[in-house]
Amino acid sequence: MGEPVTVPEYVLDAIASHRQACREPMAAFFYDLPALAAHGRAMKAALPPGVELYYAIKANSEAAILDTLAPVVDGLELSSGGEIARACACSTPRPWVLSGPGKLDTDMHEAMTRGVEALHVESLGEVARLQAVAASLECVQPVLLRINPALPEDLSSRLRMAGTATPFGIDEAQLIEAVRAVDDAANLTLVGFHVHAMSHQTCERRHQRLLASYLERWPQWRALARHPERVTQLNVGGGIGVNYLQPSEQFDWPGLCEALGQHLAAMHEPPRVRFEIGRFLTAFCGYYAIEVLDTKISHGEGFVVCRGGTHQFRLPAAQGHDHPIVHLPRDAHRASQRERRSWTVVGQLCTPKDVLSRRQALSGVAVGDLLVLPLAGAYGYNISHADFLCHPRPDQIFIRNAREASESSSRRCQYAEPVN
């Protein structure tokens, strides 16, 4: 069992205030922007010299999130024309790159006309298409080749993006051909390589070894270029995971940065390393608050039916985990006197797959209580099928002016439940 989940006092105040304004039972997201900015600054401060932090906006591309992180990070990583529009509307302009498989020619064209720093090339066919677009615009476009390298099996994670058959990147065996194709393209210039091999990495030491394997190959990759002096960037992607089951035990980001700095300092000609972090930047700032509509026992199992569900917060179903729950009873004294038993928390959907969390031990949960699901700031609402059953979309509340989070300004809810 893990530690009880901590929710800042001012987040609880924002939830209570919004609930008073709701005429229907509540389902809403709350984003702690001061905490997000502080977390981003801490991550940036831990980086060694010569290493950059970009935000992969696919994790959460809401305008308020972008406006909060843009002044903190070095740039943004985008993967579609729609994300280009959002990034270019940001209140603080930042450098940005375009990556991902299946880019449209119109995406490439728009990226170049709107000042993209570099494009990450995913295939030999994309090299040819990108050259044609750059030639039509009479520009010379910097590119990075995305590599799908061979990797030891013991460096695997829950979600592999490389080291196996995937739609992502160019097999390392084809790298010579790909580098030659870029070198032969009059309107493209090779400036680096991109490797994003693993997602959901929760072990710092394993990720440290993964990055070391890239850096060991770096001199050989760079030497393939016709002009190796122009090849200076190594984008190592993201993939830093969030421990949803034990929130107090998270990835050791400072430890990874320290080890990376030592490795780079020992290299003769180290690359300019860039991280593209999504989940690990924004997950911790978000909370999904849902109101209990019904409780029932079915074949001996207790169910708590709540407003909302997985069509608004798809993360638990997508990740295949039972999300941590914070119970906010309307009557704390009554709840403390009632039986503590196991409940499965579900939403309103007409499918048995609409499960947010199983086997949560809650005391006296009742209709009208609130349940809060923390760690909801990344890949939660934005990956959800929100139009299913034509339910109204949840409100998204951005907490902008809270006092700085600290141990003295946050509390453990009396009925916060330990995480399984």
TrEMBL record:
CDD domains per the record?
PLPDE_III_PvsE_like
* Cofactor(s) of this protein: pyridoxal 5'-phosphate
Keywords, A to Z, come to: Pyridoxal phosphate
Q: Which residues form the Orn/DAP/Arg decarboxylase 2 C-terminal domain?
A: 284-377
| Coiled-coil intervals, chain numbering | none
Residues in Orn/DAP/Arg decarboxylase 2 N-terminal domain copies: 38-283
Q: Which domain of life is it from?
A: Bacteria
Q: Name the SUPFAM superfamilies for this protein.
A: Alanine racemase C-terminal domain-like, PLP-binding barrel
Give the record's family classification: Belongs to the Orn/Lys/Arg decarboxylase class-II family.
Report the protein name in the record.
Answer: Type III PLP-dependent enzyme
Q: Which organism is it from?
A: Chromohalobacter sarecensis
